[in-house]
Specification:
The protein has about 220 residues and is an alpha/beta fold. It has a single domain, classed as Metallo-dependent phosphatases (Purple Acid Phosphatase, chain A, domain 2). About 30% of the residues lie in helices and about 25% in strands. The chain contains 6 helices and 10 strands, in the order H-E-H-E-H-H-E-E-H-E-H-E-E-E-E-E. The strands form 3 sheets. The chain has a 6-stranded mixed sheet, with helices on one face. Strands 1-2 form a two-stranded parallel ribbon. A two-stranded antiparallel ribbon has the order 9-10. Helix 5 links the parallel strand 4 and strand 5. The relative contact order is 0.16.
């Protein structure tokens, strides 16, 4: 899910409840989880599901950085740049979480990503990238617009290393674009009161990697 903008937690709580009841392996939150205020980080921390019920992976968005919010994010959740794997008897899959909260990855993160794909990608069946700022804009936004030259590098990397999905938020309105073998998916916002609030279920099994949208 993305763009819950806590404060309000009605949709967020429904999302986590549905994920646990459906026996999902993990939650991934692709940024703008909060509005950046300390009280909203406190609300989020109080409502993260226990680790023994489901794992949660959080990414930072531009709103999470407002009001000096990065300090709160890092203190509570650690790095916003990392990867994890899901390993079964049949195969292992790679999940990469990127920080685009400022609108750019920057040189250091870009080099980390290049090295990761070069050294690790061949050992995994599927590769899924999560980031906040969406690559293809369906509407104009006044802040945190991605750098075109950086997008060209990223899309070339994802094509070269056969990244299967890039899952993003930021625009609040879902869209799906395809470039090579990579599907670029922008999520609906999970924001309370949003008339098409929703989230995505990523479904990976022995035969395929697919997804399904859910509206609240």
């Amino acid at each position: 899910m993305g763009d819950s903008h806590i404060g309000g937690i009605e949709n967020y709580q429904l999302f986590t409840k549905n994920a646990i009841q459906s026996k999902a392996l993990a939650l991934v939150m692709v940024g703008d989880i909060t509005t950046g205020h300390i009280k909203d980080y406190e609300t989020l921390s109080q409502n993260i599901p226990p680790k023994d019920s489901i794992s949660s992976f959080l990414l930072v968005g531009n709103h999470d950085l407002y009001f000096d919010g990065w300090k709160e994010f890092y203190a509570r959740f650690g790095s916003s740049i990392y990867y994890f794997q899901v390993k079964t008897r049949e195969a292992s899959d790679l999940f990469i979480c990127l920080d685009s909260g400022s609108g750019t990855l920057g040189d250091k993160q870009m080099q980390w990503l290049k090295n990761l794909l070069k050294s690790k990608r061949e050992y995994y069946r599927y590769c899924i990238v999560f980031t906040h700022v969406n690559f293809f804009r369906t509407r104009h936004t006044g802040s945190t617009n991605p750098v075109v030259e950086e997008l060209q590098i990223l899309m070339d990397l994802f094509y070269t290393y056969n990244v299967n999905f890039v899952i993003m938020g930021h625009d609040h309105i879902k869209s799906i674009e395809k470039l090579g073998n990579t599907s670029y998916i922008t999520l609906d916002a999970l924001l309370d009161g949003f008339n098409q609030a929703g989230y995505l279920e990523l479904i990976i099994n022995n035969q395929s990697a697919n997804y399904k949208f859910f509206n609240l």
